[in-house]
Specification:
Elements: H1 10-22, H2 33-42, H3 47-63, H4 69-72, H5 77-82, E1 86-90, E2 96-100, H6 107-113, H7 116-137, E3 147-152, H8 163-179, E4 184-190, H9 196-203, H10 209-213, E5 215-217, H11 222-229, E6 278-282, E7 287-294, E8 299-308, E9 312-318, E10 331-339, E11 346-352, E12 356-363, E13 372-381, E14 389-390, H12 392-404
Parallel strand pairs: 2-3, 3-4, 4-5, 5-14
Antiparallel strand pairs: 1-2, 6-13, 7-12, 8-11, 8-13, 9-10, 9-12
Helix pairs in contact: 7-8
Length: 405
């Protein structure tokens, strides 16, 4: 049995009855069986876990004034204008369709322009609007309670691996899972680039198993698949339908925010959060070498660092022998350059095409008068797509592109 209203096993129906009795002190008029079974399905009908979750949600909603957020909170302009996504229509069962052009999101610009708290509140604001759509469009004959999400990963690249940005996106996912259970009906990821397995592996811990089962990574024929679920007049031309804006734009930007680079005039934040960073003093005329054993091809070395007062050399090498080597004896996979990490924090990532020992090297050998104070954070990210529903041609394309690059 699916665990939805009208499709409950005797055991599930019994658990629902006990659940209603246990949490009756926090229930509101709109908390009907449809609402309660969402919490139960999200916790696999574990009564104790579902009760803990819904009570935690009630406290969170009270503490954050969620019930009045649509009236009391104004989403900041930069988020309204540049955070990607929008509802373009309804699927064949009447559920809203959200298209998200994640690759167009300027996550660095967003975090330089908006507080984390405002970004999270804007997503709560959005999800409350979507819940209102569910309520308004439900009828006695048809209950609307799920969102169809199409995530277009075109243009997604290394810039999206920026750690503060990924941390922000994962905070959104965690909030979604914790407070809006079973809101996702089905999700389609399209135009997945070869870096997608890395991004997915970072996000996976924040998704429960029920959500993961609803995510489908489509191949080159994704338009045909989408049209099995969505009528052409409800899907923009760009993604395989017949819908356009009044001016003929095939992406329907009047409905879907397409993001783009955020103008620096919005910037207000400087990255000063050094939580998790390692601090070290590099003496004058010396260097710091950090060894990392890479056992999976296409793993990514993600780095962030800053220095106090002066510049520093930075490069990445791969050992050619099974012992410690000087920089000149190793293979330079990212040539060392002096960077102004004292002016602007440095961050980036490098994809390891081969396995082996990689060496991240901070170079101060050129400075015979000054030592440098360094703050760094380095992570090794391995690809992992083993538990996703990925079409065979898609995973083949990802693998082939990885091998050829």
């Amino acid at each position: 049995m699916s665990g939805t209203v009208g499709d409950l096993s005797p055991k599930q129906a019994d658990i629902l009855g006990k659940f209603k009795e246990n949490v009756k002190d926090i229930l509101k008029p709109n908390h009907d069986d449809y609402h309660l079974t969402k919490w139960l399905r999200a916790r696999d009908f574990d009564l104790q876990k579902a009760e803990a979750a819904i009570r935690n949600d009630a406290a969170w909603r009270n503490d954050n004034n969620v019930d009045t957020i649509l009236e009391d909170y104004k989403v900041p302009e930069v988020i309204e204008k540049y955070f990607v996504g929008g509802i373009c229509g309804r699927d064949k069962e009447g559920c809203p369709i959200w298209i998200d052009t994640f690759g167009d999101l300027d996550i660095r610009g967003m975090l330089c322009s908006a507080k984390k708290q405002d970004i999270l509140k804007s997503k709560v604001h959005l999800l409350e609007r979507i819940n209102n759509i569910f309520t308004e469009e439900s009828t006695p004959e048809r209950r609307v309670e799920g969102l169809v999400v199409i995530i277009d990963l075109e243009k997604m690249g290394m810039k999206h691996l920026w750690k503060p940005g990924m941390d922000m996106m994962n905070s959104i996912l965690a909030m979604f899972e914790e407070h809006y259970p079973e809101t996702l009906k089905i999700s389609f990821a399209i135009n997945a680039p070869r870096i997608f397995p890395i991004i997915y592996n970072l996000a996976r811990p924040f998704l429960n198993e029920n959500t993961i089962k609803k995510v489908h990574v489509l191949g080159a024929d994704y338009k045909q698949v989408l049209l099995k679920y969505i009528d052409p007049d409800q899907l923009p031309v760009y993604w395989g339908g017949t819908k356009t804006d009044p001016d003929g734009n095939p992406k329907c930007p009047s409905l879907i925010n397409l993001g783009g680079d955020i103008p620096s005039s919005y910037f207000c934040n400087v990255l000063n959060d050094l939580d998790g960073f390692t601090q070290v003093d590099i003496g004058r005329g010396s260097s710091l070498q950090l060894d990392y054993e890479i056992t999976v091809k296409r793993s990514v070395i993600r780095y962030q660092f800053k220095t106090d007062g002066f510049d520093l050399g930075f490069g990445i090498y791969r050992r050619t022998r099974n012992k410690r080597q000087s920089a000149g004896d190793m293979a330079a996979v990212m040539a060392s350059e002096r960077v102004n990490s004292h002016l602007v924090p440095e961050d980036g990532s490098f994809t390891c095409k081969e396995t082996g020992t990689y060496v991240v090297r901070f170079d101060n050998t050129y400075s015979w008068t000054r030592g440098k104070k360094l703050f760094y954070l380095i992570e090794i990210l391995e690809p992992d797509v083993h538990d996703l529903d990925i079409q065979d041609d898609t995973i083949s394309e990802l693998s082939n592109s990885s091998d050829k690059s």
